[in-house]
Structures are given as structure tokens and as C-alpha cells.
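To fix ideas, we give here one paired sequence and structure record:
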Amino acid sequence: MGDMGRGIVAVEPGKRRIKVGVAGFGNVGRAFVELLVERRELLDSRYGIDVSVSFVADSKGVLARREGLPWSLLALSLKVPRGGVSGLEGGSPGMSVEEAIAATDIDVLVDVTPSNYSRPDPQLKWYRLVLGSGGAVVTADKAPLATRCDSLLTASWRPRLFYKATVMAGTPLIDMLRWGFSGRIVERVTGILNGTTNYVLGLAEEGLGFEEAIRDAQRRGYAEPDPSSDLEGLDLAAKAAIISCTLGSPTTLWSVERRSVVNEEAFERAREAFSRGRRVKYVAVVEVGKGSFVDLVEVSKNSVLFNVSGAMNAVVIRSSEAEEVTVMGPGAGRKATAAALLSDLVLAAREVS
């Protein structure tokens, strides 16, 4: 990626210098940079990684320096309004992420742009530029993998594409599926993977109306201003597609059957089930090699999913050995997602050195 070659040089024996570019500077992007500023000495002392950030990009432009942005400038960037990083010293208003990648010769791209399922092409182009030049990609953006995992998870690129932040945020489900089940055959994955819908269905049990529950979730930061992708199962379908791809069964979110949505009728169903000592959960089901679907299902007190409350996520993994493993943890949140990205950055550094 330029005459200087990859940015991995020996700072000290056994240490690596990694140049990072950050695409997306909203809540999660800022949380990641904030965590990187805080943990950079830990990355050096514990993992032998001397990390520098060559660019930060938002919707209006790029703040970049080929040799790496000063940490003081990165700290300052966290204080500017959204869309304002290119107004700082060294900023380039109107510069694209693609141009920034070419200009800075990064080793790792960290993608924290919003998921746009109908238009993932810009991100796909970034990934191909970086992966095709021997670099690595760390992403929280579900759209590229949920729509084109067949072209991304190739034999040569798969080891350098890290995406655990796309499913269950700070809970390392993807790591477990990629490496924790090596040599075993996973047959089925069933999970509560959307904190918004799990939270509002819980409010239905408490007697809140549909609109009131959505407003409550929005006030608490559990739901977006437009929660349709959550309520209509698109977010769940994307995560199901990513899980299926991870387990060697390439698919797209458009192939995941969405059998139901969360609406007023679902609220009535949740209240009625609760009156009988049961609960309604909005789940994604991946039957590896057979297909995936999203649906409202009724669970009894004997189910491990019964007591998964609020914005928590939980997944039950069934293998061919007839064993079931349950993974539970936070499925959203800026800090949890940033922590997952940082963890993947450590893994990525090993692959590009």
C-alpha cells in the first residue's frame, strides 16, 4: 500500500508497530479511540504492539497523518462535535475513506460506520483494498458480512478479517464459534440477539403499551430513533447470516426467513404467555446447512432463554455431540463494542506482522 510497504517495523525485539485507520466517528468510533488512548501502554507492555492511528474519518472528512496522529490530537478529536474532525489541524474536509486508506498506508482498518444493508458497496471496497494489500480489517459494521460474506471470508482473507463486534458486541460469541468449536460440528444456534426487542417485550409483560415501551427504550438508549430494523427482524437476520457464514454455510440476510415482527400483536401475545407462566422471545435460529429464520417463540421456565431480561443477549449452541453450550452477555453498548474492537485489533496485529 505505497512505497513505504506495510507499517510493521521492529520498535524493539519482539515488538510490532501497527498503523490503524478508523472509519466512523459516532458513539462507538469515539468510544474505541477513547479506549485506544487509554490502553495504548497496555497494548505495548502486554502484547508488544506499538499502535498509532493514521486517520480518523467521519461523514464530513478525514483527520490524517501518514506517520500517525499525535495522541494529544486524538484526545482533542473526542471533544469536537460530530462531523467536525476534519476541521482540526491536519484535517481534510471532503476526503473519503478510500482516499485516506491510499494516503496513509495503514495496516489495520477499523470500521465502525453504521450498517447500511441496501448499500454496503463503499465498505466492501475499503475491505478489499486493505485485505488485498496484506492488511487486516476489524469491523462492527454488519452490512458487508451479512450481504457478501462469500466474497470476504475467502481462504486468504478470512484469517485477517475480525468481526466479533458485529454479534453480541462485547461478548465473544464469534470467537467461540470460529475457534472454540474447532474439530466439532455445530448443528444449530438459537439466540436472543437483539437487546431492543428483548427489552420492549419485557415491558409488555409489565403492562406497558407498544408505543410507550418503544419511547422508554429510546430514552434509555436501547432503541434507535427509527427502531424498524430491530422490530422487523432485519438486525436479527443480519446476525443470523453472520453466524451461518462463520460456521461455513455462506448466506445473506435476505435469505434468512423473517417469520414475525415485534408489534402490538406481539405485545398482546407476550402478555398472554406471561399470564400462563411462559414468555415470548424474539429469536434468531441458525440451522447450519439447512437455513435460518427469525421468529417470536414461546419459552417455558425450563428454557435457558426464559430469564434473559432487559437488553441482555443469550445464545444456545448445539453440536453434533448432542451437547449444548450457552453464552450470555451484553449485546450492545458503546463501551462493550469498543472493547470487542480493541480485542480484535490485538488479534489482527498478529496476522499482519
Q: What stands out?
A: The chain has two domains: 16-169+335-352, 186-331. The domain at 16-169+335-352 is CATH 3.40.50.720 (Rossmann fold). Residues 1-11 have pLDDT under 50 and may be disordered.
